[in-house]
Write a structure and sequence with these properties.
Chains A, B: This is Transcriptional regulator, ArsR family protein. Chains A, B: It comes from Pseudooceanicola batsensis (strain ATCC BAA-863 / DSM 15984 / KCTC 12145 / HTCC2597). Chains A, B: GO terms for molecular function: DNA-binding transcription factor activity. Chains A, B: It holds the Pfam family HTH_20. 2 copies of one chain form a homodimer. By secondary structure, the first copy, chain A, is of the alpha+beta class. Chain A has a single domain (6-108), classed as Arc Repressor Mutant, subunit A, CATH 1.10.10.10. Helix content of chain A is 59%, strand content 13%. Chain A has 6 helices and 3 strands, in the order ααβααββαα. A 3-stranded antiparallel sheet of chain A has the order 1-3-2. In chain A, β2 and β3 form a beta hairpin. In chain A, α1 (6-15) runs antiparallel to α4. In chain A, 21% of the residues are buried. Chain A binds chain B through residues 1-5, 8-9, 12-13, 15-18, 21-22, 24-25, 28-30, 40-42, 62, 74-77, 79, 82-83, 85-86, 89-90, 92-93, 96, 111, and chain B through 1-5, 8-9, 12-13, 15-18, 21-22, 24-25, 28-30, 40-42, 62, 74-77, 79, 82-83, 85-86, 89-90, 92-93, 96, 111. The structure holds a DNA duplex.
DNA sequence: GTCACGTTTAGCCATATGGCTAATTAATGA
DNA sequence: TCATTAATTAGCCATATGGCTAAACGTGAC
């Protein structure tokens, strides 16, 4: 127990904000500068920059500053731990509903 | 833009805490009372109860109070929005790396 | 050299989060 | 009935989060 998984903490936390998810959406199409990323969001730049910081701290994006422009790109493989956690869970409860008969399953299906 | 998806906010937020993830782990094996769930966590009960509240608010668990015991059970299908978001993203960037040639792909593979 | 541009730093604010103790409620069992 | 038990409520605290403005920084363009 108490097996701290700080990685998952950071990742889920990073994903819990709509602005940040929108940034990831955008970056899925290809790299972009901080300014480009900020444009669609009605928010002061320094506020926005914090979101970039959170995403980078979680490892979901990486950034390179060239001249005065910081370019951000996605690190898709960082979704892996999240993916893993979810599929582990799916297996856990599927294994469990397997152990229950189909009657019990149908009861659970009420949700 | 600014398409608030409060559901995902709540879900990712709920999943961002190790105590709460541990509770979900436990509940994947079957229902349990608040007391049983709290036992492995070195934490005062009222603190723990808040976590239960967060999980319930996110819809990840449901609880029934019978007598003085509140029993909690998992609502597995609530993982669905999270799952959906992730697979949408996987598709997005896979589609993109498809558009790039294999040379560009190999460059990206550096991460 | 100087000015504009893209970004960052510094500092502030309100609210949320995750923890605690003490006291309360409600149900069970002796 | 009365003590014990399971959980909740109330209230407190420290820190984190997500936003802001004003000012500074560093680079590129003219």
């Amino acid at each position: 127990m108490a097996k701290r998984d700080a990685d998952l903490d950071l990742l889920f936390q990073a994903l819990s904000d709509p602005t940040r998810r929108a940034v990831l959406d955008r970056l899925a199409q290809g790299p972009a500068s901080v300014g480009e990323l900020a444009a669609p969001h009605d928010m002061a730049l320094p506020s926005f920059t914090k979101h970039i910081g959170v995403l980078e701290a979680a490892g979901l994006i990486r950034t390179v500053k060239k001249g005065r422009v910081r370019t951000c790109h996605l690190v898709p493989k960082r979704y892996q731990p999240v993916d893993d956690w979810l599929s582990r869970h799916r297996k856990l409860w599927e294994r469990r509903t397997d152990r229950l008969g189909s009657l019990a399953q149908s009861l659970y299906r009420k949700d």
